[in-house]
Specification:
InterPro entries: Amidohydrolase, Bact_exopeptidase_dim_dom, Peptidase_M20, Peptidase_M20_dimer. It contains ten helices and 16 strands.
């Protein structure tokens, strides 16, 4: 197995790639320049099996090892950016107004390219490695991972196991975090339209005021967590949008409420959908109003499979030592659409330390380039651990 020093020589080149991608971010299924950049790099490494246009802008490239027959494992990196105005102040800040790489996907893509270059030159493994460059991780359904699975990449490329990695602010550079079982939360989104009776703000007694009802619903939803859920289980219900009248003197007919639910439990997803409806409807009808309700299930919870997580831990430890791998990392309630791949195949997801930087989805966030050789080394040690020749 390799130490991280093996990959220091790659760091300068991969840093250039990472910063180019950071300067040129693209949203969801519009990563055309990013996909072209990735494809050209893969071809320059001597990789002949490259398929593009998967889920619009996704790519899968296959490297055949020289160690004989064996399984195919998938390594996934996401490519899309976020609709955020950058405030990092870095020389390589986004050149695209209102779009930035605020979640490290530029680093994820660059690290997988760095690993691809090394693996294509050494091929010191049996079987094959499928490099999955995924679009549209940051969107609602259908996300890029969902579409790639639906389009059959796991079957078409014979992928037996899948692995993902994510930059993690707050975890020191050179360290990894992982755990067995549920590691990240599911994401569901809901919309509630309170249907009341509007009128003049001077005469609320002539209305069925949906603003007051909406306020009661918002407060009522919080009791689903504080009073209806086991405190040893995890459920987050956050109301994030509220839309009412646009004038000071108008009570509207309708008020729109929207929010998100996060949990590590599939049964709590069912609970949230049923009880948000029941609570909102009960409150509204108690005031003589009614509601329209929509609940959309997005990403499931990210579940790390036992065997594959053991392999991931082994690969990370071989790179940085046991003391730098937290194998009981606290789960994050944030969602990750790689979960769709983990539902379809066994695999594991790991956090890569990004140091004391701004948090993901923050305008000041930037991927720490000192983390690049650690991510590259992890991928290569993982391949050579699982596909030992």
């Amino acid at each position: 197995m390799h130490s991280v020093e093996t990959f220091r020589d790659l760091q300068r080149e991969v840093t250039e790639w990472r910063r180019y991608l950071h300067e040129n971010p693209e949203l969801d299924y519009r990563e055309h320049n990013t996909a072209r950049f990735v494809t050209e790099k893969l071809a320059s490494f001597g990789i002949n099996h490259i398929e593009t246009g998967i889920a619009e802008t996704g790519i899968v490239a296959v490297i055949q090892g020289e160690g004989g027959d064996g399984p195919t494992i998938g390594l996934r990196a996401d490519m899309d950016a976020l609709p955020i105005v950058e405030a990092s102040g870095k020389p390589w800040s986004s050149k695209s107004p209102g779009v930035m790489h605020a979640c490290g996907h530029d680093g994820h893509t660059a690290m997988l390219l760095g690993a691809a270059k090394h693996l294509a030159s050494t091929r010191n493994f049996k079987g094959s490695v499928a490099l999955i460059f995924q679009p549209a991780e940051e969107v609602e359904l259908p996300t890029g991972a969902f579409r790639m699975v639906q389009e059959g990449i796991l079957d078409r490329f014979g992928i037996a196991q899948v692995f993902g990695m994510h930059s993690w602010p707050g975890l020191d550079v050179g360290k990894f975090g992982i755990r067995h079982g549920y590691f990240m939360g599911s994401q569901d989104d809901f919309d509630i339209v309170v249907k009341g009776k509007g009128g003049h703000a001077a005469h609320p007694y002539r209305t069925i005021d949906p603003v007051v009802i909406a306020a009661q619903i918002i407060l009522g939803l919080q009791t689903l967590v504080s009073r209806r859920t086991d405190p040893l289980e995890t459920l987050v219900i956050s109301v994030t949008k509220l839309s009412a009248a646009q004038a000071y003197n108008v009570i509207p007919d309708d008020v729109e409420i929207a929010g998100t639910c996060r949990t590590l439990s599939s049964s709590l997803r069912d609970f949230a959908e049923q009880e948000i409806l029941a609570s909102a409807q009960g409150i509204a009808r108690g005031f003589g109003a009614d509601i329209e309700f929509r609940y959309r299930r997005s990403a499931p919870a990210t579940f790390n499979h036992t065997k594959e997580t053991d392999l991931a831990i082994q690969a990370a430890r071989s790179l940085v030592g046991s003391e730098s791998v937290d194998v009981k990392m606290r789960p994050s309630i944030g969602a990750e659409d790689f979960a769709f791949m983990l539902e379809a195949r066994p695999g594991s997801y790991i956090f890569l330390g990004n140091g004391p930087t701004a948090q993901c989805h923050n305008p000041a966030y930037d991927f720490d380039d000192e983390a690049l050789p650690y991510g590259i080394g992890y991928w290569i040690n993982l391949v050579e651990t699982i596909l030992a020749a």
